[in-house]
């Protein structure tokens, strides 16, 4: 008999990699295979240090701006978060060979914003200032055409030129509940505002939040595996807290576990943000197994089968 205390781990499912992240990583890997290193990547391809470091080890070179890329024939990949229109324009003007790893669900929001603009509407974007996806979406239209709102208070302070001719779009990785409140405030103030069919929060964000809601109220603590700059991971931690979990923490690796914070727990929920690989979840479970007698149970709230096509330039490489 082990003298370790028992610990029941409830693993949220779905968790971890989404179809957009999977595709973005594949794009860099296939570009490395097909064209050889270096492959330049503008911004972290996805917000996860482990993923970025593994690709760097294979020959990817990460930069924040195209100005850091020398004149080269090597491929330049744009990250899953999407980029402002000025970025491919700059790449084209420098005759760069670029591959766009923007998630198709982010591109869909770009198209919605462009369509509203074409119809003469002022566009309200619900999102977090400074996040690369927000910078990319705002950069689809001329400066001033999109107004960012982050909170219900921001909605109260909006001063649109024509309140009867507005539309809203959103970042894909927001809290479903917070966004609902902001949308309600928008519709209250501007009943004529044009909306997406549902919202722009992607299936992966929605499903991961639902799984956390199912687990969080039943466990003594919850770990979200993900990076501090990952929006969807941060939201998962908040969702766990709001769903009644007394201790919800965001961790990148097992080495960051503060064991004193988990003393005396008998149950633990684990999930992972859309950019966190499963191997990091396994690493954390293994670390707990050294301190507790663990049993692991999966709590599944949705099945995911979605997959996205690769860019044309890489499709044959994938088939080989
Ligand atoms: S979190 Fe959603 S929008 Fe972002 S890459 Fe994944 S599927 Fe695409």
UniProtKB/TrEMBL annotation:
Signal peptide span: none
Enzyme Commission code: 1.17.7.4
Alphabetical list of Pfam families matching this protein: LYTB
Binding residue positions for isopentenyl diphosphate: 47, 81, 131, 230-232, 275
Pathway: Isoprenoid biosynthesis; isopentenyl diphosphate biosynthesis via DXP pathway; isopentenyl diphosphate from 1-deoxy-D-xylulose 5-phosphate: step 6/6; Isoprenoid biosynthesis; dimethylallyl diphosphate biosynthesis; dimethylallyl diphosphate from (2E)-4-hydroxy-3-methylbutenyl diphosphate: step 1/1
Organism domain of life: Bacteria
Molecular-function GO terms, alphabetical: 4 iron, 4 sulfur cluster binding; 4-hydroxy-3-methylbut-2-enyl diphosphate reductase activity; metal ion binding
Binding site for [4Fe-4S] cluster: 18, 103, 202
Biological function: Catalyzes the conversion of 1-hydroxy-2-methyl-2-(E)-butenyl 4-diphosphate (HMBPP) into a mixture of isopentenyl diphosphate (IPP) and dimethylallyl diphosphate (DMAPP). Acts in the terminal step of the DOXP/MEP pathway for isoprenoid precursor biosynthesis.
Protein name in the entry: 4-hydroxy-3-methylbut-2-enyl diphosphate reductase
Gene name of this polypeptide: ispH
């Amino acid at each position: 008999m082990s003298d370790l205390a028992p610990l029941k781990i409830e693993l949220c499912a779905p968790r971890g990699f989404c179809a957009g992240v999977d595709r973005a990583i594949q794009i860099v890997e296939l570009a490395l295979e097909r064209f050889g290193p270096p492959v330049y990547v503008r911004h972290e391809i996805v917000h996860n240090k482990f993923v970025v470091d593994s690709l760097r080890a294979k020959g990817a070179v990460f930069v924040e701006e195209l100005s850091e890329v020398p004149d080269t024939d090597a491929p330049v990949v744009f990250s899953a978060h999407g980029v402002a229109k000025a970025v491919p324009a700059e790449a084209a003007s420098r005759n760069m060979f670029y591959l766009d790893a923007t998630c198709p669900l982010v591109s869909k929001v770009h198209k919605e914003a462009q369509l509203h603009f074409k119809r003469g509407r002022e566009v309200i974007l619900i999102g977090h200032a400074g996040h690369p996806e927000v910078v990319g979406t705002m950069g689809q239209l001329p400066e001033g055409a999109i107004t960012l709102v982050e909170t219900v208070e921001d909605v109260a302070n909006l001063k649109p030129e024509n309140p009867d001719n507005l539309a809203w779009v959103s970042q894909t990785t927001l809290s479903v509940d917070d966004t609902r409140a902001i949308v309600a405030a928008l519709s209250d103030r501007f009943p004529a505002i044009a909306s997406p069919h549902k919202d722009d929060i992607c299936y992966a964000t929605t499903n991961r939040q639902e799984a956390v809601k199912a687990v969080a109220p039943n466990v003594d603590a919850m770990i979200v595996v993900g990076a501090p700059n990952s929006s969807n991971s941060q939201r998962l931690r908040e969702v766990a807290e709001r769903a009644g979990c007394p201790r919800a923490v965001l961790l990148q690796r097992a080495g960051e576990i503060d064991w004193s914070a988990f003393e005396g727990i008998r149950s633990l929920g684990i999930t992972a943000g859309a950019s966190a690989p499963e191997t990091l979840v396994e690493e954390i479970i293994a670390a707990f197994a050294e301190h507790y007698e663990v049993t692991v149970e999966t709590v599944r709230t949705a099945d995911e089968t979605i997959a996205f096509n690769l860019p044309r330039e890489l499709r044959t490489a994938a088939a080989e």
